[in-house]
Design brief:
single chain, mainly alpha, 6 helices
Length: 160
């Protein structure tokens, strides 16, 4: 009787371990799929926003030395759309809806664009649009080289 009980207990423990392992693997797979879907959706939106940039400003968004295009409502709107998309990406990372690996891809390009003279100029006009999101304001200002108190943009410091 004791051997049968021990054997049944071991089988139950093995079944429990397999079930836990399966749940963990499925959860990881689901998280990775969701990150891929978010990444692809935001890449699609990025493409739409970039295709809406005025032609004379398209190259200037990355350039550190190119002559700036004239200000225009169309250019300001294109930059605002890009900043809105970026603030959403920032929020998703900040609240840990996307992995750090995804954010690192977005962050590199975002900082590169934010440092450009074009975006520095346009940011002065658009900064007030983001007053309700001080963490993103701090991120942009820090990316552009302004002094920001530390701890404002880390996802660990913004959990609810």
């Amino acid at each position: 009787m004791d051997i049968a009980t021990l054997f049944t207990s071991i089988l139950g423990l093995i079944a429990l371990i397999v079930a836990i392992w399966t749940i963990i693997k499925n959860s990881d797979l689901h998280r990775r799929q969701m990150n891929a879907e978010v990444f692809m959706k935001y890449a699609e939106r990025y493409e739409q926003i970039m295709s809406g940039f005025p032609q004379d400003a398209f190259r200037a968004r990355f350039s550190m030395s190119e002559e700036l295009p004239s200000s225009s409502p169309e250019l300001t709107l294109a930059v605002l759309r890009y900043l809105n998309l970026s603030s959403e990406e920032f929020y998703l990372w900040q609240k840990k809806y996307v992995d750090d690996e995804v954010w690192e891809i977005w962050e590199y390009e975002l900082i590169r664009i934010l440092k450009s003279p074009l975006f520095r100029r346009e940011w002065r006009e658009l900064e007030s649009e983001f007053q309700s999101y001080p963490e993103f304001l701090a991120f942009v200002n820090q990316s552009q080289g302004h002094n920001i108190p530390s701890g404002l943009i880390s996802p660990a410091n913004t959990e609810e």
